Amino acid sequence: MLHVETFIVGELQTNCYCVSDSQSRVAFIIDPGDDASYIAQKIAGESLKPKAVLATHGHFDHVLSAFELQHIFTIPFYIHQNDEFLLQAMKKTAEYYLAAPVIEFPPTPSKTLQKNASLSLGPYRFEIMETPGHTAGSVCFYCKKEHICFTGDTVFEGGAVGDWHHGYSDKQALLASVRTILSLPPETLVYPGHGNQTTVASEREYLLKPDI
Ligand SMILES: [Zn+2]
Ligand SMILES: [Zn+2]
Fold first, then answer.
1. Residue 204 Cα, ligand 1 centroid: separation in angstroms?
2. What is the pLDDT of residues 9-64, one digit of tens each?
3. Is residue 17 part of a domain?
4. Distance of CA 60 to the CA centre of its chain
5. Torsion-angle region of residue 175: left (phi > 0), alpha (psi -120 to 50) or beta?
6. Domain of 66, in residue numbers
7. Å from CA of 46 to ligand 2 middle
8. pTM of the entire structure?
9. CATH number, domain at 109?
10. Which of 10, 45, 173, 178 has the most beta carbons within 10 angstroms of its beta carbon?
11. What is the CA(23)–ligand 2 centre distance, in A?
């Protein structure tokens, strides 16, 4: 069975997820947006074996503590290559939004993610779904067998979708990505980058209107 634990981290209350295989105890750390030592402590306390740090996209509130966790556990960091440019801007953007000095280093991608690739966690497989729009390299991590999907800042509980006000965002691409997520089986649990978890069925109710 897969176990999902949520750590709400940082000023922007980002959901950092630790998804683990309860048998082998291997785990992925998804979107560590801050508080590396808190996350590391929880993970070590549960005797989990992190295998990689994954980012749904490159915004600082999803990757701020990735570098530190990479080094604490000596594990790789994966992101879509279209969002690598955001890592270079991480420090500056974080300082702008947080209005405070930021000492963290940006993570070093060990592997870039792409469509049709998959990541294995024990006997489970996570498909990489390319869901651009909020950022060009936004992805979702989808485990068909366990009906769970980590959606980053593309879909949120209650019919909200990611913002597209950044110069590099693309509203049409975002709406197409939202439709891709809504085409997953209705029982799929959706774990968004902020806020509560939801299901594809309940988001369909909110979002499948003629104007979207
Ligand atoms: Zn974002
Ligand atoms: Zn975010």
1. 22
2. 999 999 999 999 999 999 999 999 999 999 999 999 999 999 999 999 999 999 99
3. yes
4. 12
5. alpha
6. 2-207
7. 26
8. 0.96
9. 3.60.15.10
10. 178
11. 31
Q: What is the distance of C-alpha 65 from the center of its chain?
A: 13
- The number of distinct structural domains making up the chain is 1
pLDDT at residue 114, as a whole number? 87
CB 109 within 8 A of CB 77: yes
The answer to whether 66 touches 77, Cβ cutoff 8 Å, is yes
Contact 77, 110 (CB under 8 A): yes
Q: Write the DSSP assignment of 34-97 as a string of letters.
A: S-HHHHHHHHHHTT-EEEEEE-SS--HHHHTTHHHHHHHHT--EEEEGGGHHHHHTHHHHHHHH
Amino acid at residue number 141: F
Token readout for 12 is: 């922007």
Q: Residues lining ligand 2 (ion), CB within 5 A? A: 61, 153, 193
Q: How many residues does the chain have?
A: 212
d(C-alpha 16, C-alpha 13), whole Å: 9
Cα–Cα dist 134/86, whole Å: 12
Burial (CB count <10 Å: 0-12, 13-18, 19+), residue 210:
exposed
Ligand 2 centroid to Cα of residue 24, in Å, is 30
d(C-alpha 14, C-alpha 195), whole Å? 8
Question: pLDDT tens for residues 119-159?
Answer: 999 999 999 999 999 999 999 999 999 999 999 999 999 99
